[in-house]
Amino acid sequence: MSATTTVPETPPTVAQPRRAGRLARIVSPFRQARGVQRFMLLTGTGLTLVFVFVSIFAPLLAPYGFDAYQDASGRFPQQGEPSAAHHWGTTVNSFDVLSRTLFGARTALEVMILAVVFALCVGVPLGLISGYVGGWVDRMLVLVMDALFAFPYLLLAIVASFLLKNTIGNGIIVAAIAITVVYVPQYFRVVRASTLSAREATYVEAARAMGARPATIIRRYLFANVVQSVPVIATLNAADAILTLAGLGFLGLGIQPTEAAEWGYDLQRAISDAGAGIWWTALYPGLGIVLAVTALTLVGEGLNDVLNPTLRRRRSRAPQIQSSAVGPASAPVVEEDVGK
């Protein structure tokens, strides 16, 4: 009679160490940061979380829609001062400034996420392929990226937005793609430089000797080792994407007012109001841009100081000297004069 062995079921707590490890990697920058770095990282993270919260729950927080100019009681006043009905006043188009500002944060978050994701999906793979394959592929990609990088970023975004304006109906997608064109060369250059140095490493040579395909080497061995600085660049580009979006909207090449609320467009419409003493139409969209850009910049600079080994500072501890059997080791040794 053969004995039957029962395989014990995997306890549900096996996944807990993995989750704890992921959480530890996320929290590790906050633990490693010290002094000004920690202040920048915590302050930027807190402001960013507020920005994301306002963006997600803008339909619930805003008293009116982004394009609402009237309610059941009638049309809103034009350029009305802050009051109980309109806490931040109204614009020349009778839009509620509070609602436009909250929905503008939602638009900025959508365009920022799409632009960064598009740039990562294009720039990182091209940098890996160019750095690993080399040859004429590398030369052609470097030529194209250098040509794009030579243009001023705002001018390049304006050209891309103008060319895509009549081809894609969604203004948010058009703005995101126009900003993506600006950031792809940055990811390409950083990833390519890291790949050029990593492809000659010992583990890559061992993978080649074992017969691994280039796609496998790039995916399993190079990718995780060349994207260390990408999160910092992505955070700083997210802050810059908000400024670029505001610049496009200010020039009238961004999102149309009937599609979504946008801070740059609201600032452009408020230029004439500033000279007439109407301050509320430009104050709150401008503060939204400043706070969002400042928050993401603080996060990026804090992560750069923590993750960059050339800037990272670790806290040192005073050495602990244990006492010996003869006496305390910290006591100074005094030599007596024999002649006395």
Inertia-based shape: elongated
What's the N-to-C terminus distance?
Answer: 94 Å
What pattern of helices and strands is seen along the backbone? HHHEEHHHHHHHHHH
**Number of distinct helices:** 13
CATH homologous superfamily? MetI-like
Mean pLDDT: 79
Structural class comes to: mainly alpha
Uncertain segments = 333-340
Give structural notes.
By secondary structure, this protein is mostly helical. The protein has one domain (32-64, 94-307): Orthogonal Bundle (MetI-like fold), CATH 1.10.3720. It is 64% helix and 1% strand. The protein is built from 13 helices and two strands, in the order αααββαααααααααα. Strands 1-2 form a two-stranded antiparallel sheet. Helix 6 (153-164) crosses helix 7 and helix 7 (171-198) runs antiparallel to helix 10 (230-250). The N and C termini lie far apart (94 Å). The model is unreliable at 333-340 (pLDDT under 50).
Question: What is this structure, in a nutshell?
Answer:
The chain is mainly α. The chain has one domain: MetI-like fold (Orthogonal Bundle). It is built from 13 helices and two strands.
Main features:
340 residues, mainly alpha, MetI-like fold, 13 helices, disordered C terminus
Layout of strands and helices, then pairs:
Blueprint: H1 15-32, H2 36-56, H3 58-61, E1 70-71, E2 74-75, H4 97-133, H5 135-150, H6 153-164, H7 171-198, H8 202-209, H9 214-226, H10 230-250, H11 263-269, H12 271-275, H13 280-307
Antiparallel strand pairs: 1-2
